[in-house]
Amino acid sequence: MLKLHPLDVAIIFGYFVFIIFIGSRLWRREKHSGVKSYLLAGRQLSLPAFVATLVSTWYGGILGVGEYAYKYGVSNWLVFGVPYYLAAAIFAIFIAQKARELELYTIPHQLEIAYGKYVSIIGAFFVFVMTVPAAYILMLAVLMKYLFGLPLFWGLVISALFSTGYVLIGGFRSVIRTDVVQFSLMFLSFLILLPVAYFNYGGGDFLKTQLPANHLVWHGGMGAQYIVVWFFIALATLIEPGFYQRCFAAQTKKIAQRGIFISIAFWICFDFMTTFTGLYARAVLPHLSDPVTSYLALGHKLLPPVVYGLFLTGLMATIMSTIDSYSFLAAMTFGRDFLWRIQNKSSPKLIKKYTRIGLLVSGVLAIAIAISAQSVVRIWKNLGSIGTPALMIPLSVSFFPKLKMRQKFALTSIIISALISTIWVFSKSFNSGKYLLGIEPIFPGLVFSLTMLLLDKLSHRFSRRQNNVRDLHQ
Hints:
mainly alpha, globular, 21 helices
């Protein structure tokens, strides 16, 4: 447990109170609002709000970034930066405007239009599991344990309650309002710490003399193959529910596309700050027992009270902005795409009620997963390795009529690719801690899904040729 100055504690608690206040002020407005207002802020998301909420939501793993930069140096930018910039750019170019034009609500909504009810329901299951914010609630609970000595379980409960309570009241508008504040705080935190580290210790010459040689090499000592794997993992961006939700909510399709490109620029700037702050942490504190605390330890060493409290608040804001967004995404999926569908699309007014039930369910499930896994990286990797192969190809091609899969192929692809990757994930348990054949779980599932897409196109072309030949003979 870190000993905090009372002023730092006061700033952190003040942040929590302020976030709850601005997030819950929408009670009267949203009490009688329609589904479109509650789920998508009436599709009136402006460009500045689009950028703020997307940038802050997509960066919840801040402590993991600090750990990686501390261990492997500048390769942090290549692993957690470049692949995701490229994937986000692909999304912006090929999908963003098409998603906005369709005026949908969720990813399963798109799957329903493209492939029908059963594909939609199965797809909703994977979207729900992938958006339950277990990893981020665990991260915030670990941070609370480090700062306040709070037991992990109660840290998880408090994290879930604080991060979702105001969303229960105000819906997506509450997410947007709080994300704008959290966007500012996340940048402020590193605009404070990085310059202080630079002026205290110097720049490039200091880092070169104090860091291991591999820390300033692009691969960080991990090798090219390891780096390449992350470019495939980053393709999960193409099925990222947060991207789709913000595109569905944007005022125009141009805002949806431009907002992503502007967000990429902000991510590049933020990654620069987080990577070099991690380098300073390693150079100044080379013997940390737990690299996850690298940012916390460096800030504690260099920053005075009040300033350190602001820095810690920025770290918390970075995590909380992801928790509230993913909690709401999971709730939307559970409420609209499960409960409402089970009721055979009863009154749309019930969607808000079902979504609020979904918030409670996702919170409880997130706590259960966090307690079971107790590893942020394990949660990220396992759920992503199953959900990405299941959804990426069927969802991505569904926006293009000539590429879209036929229903039976899409259904088979989603179910079997997820099953294959699940088997691969659990193969570690009975294969001496190694994956089957030494292959990462994401790859077998993706290969099967791609094979189904090719089989679909080949069989469709063959059927057309047979029909043409039959017509000629007639």
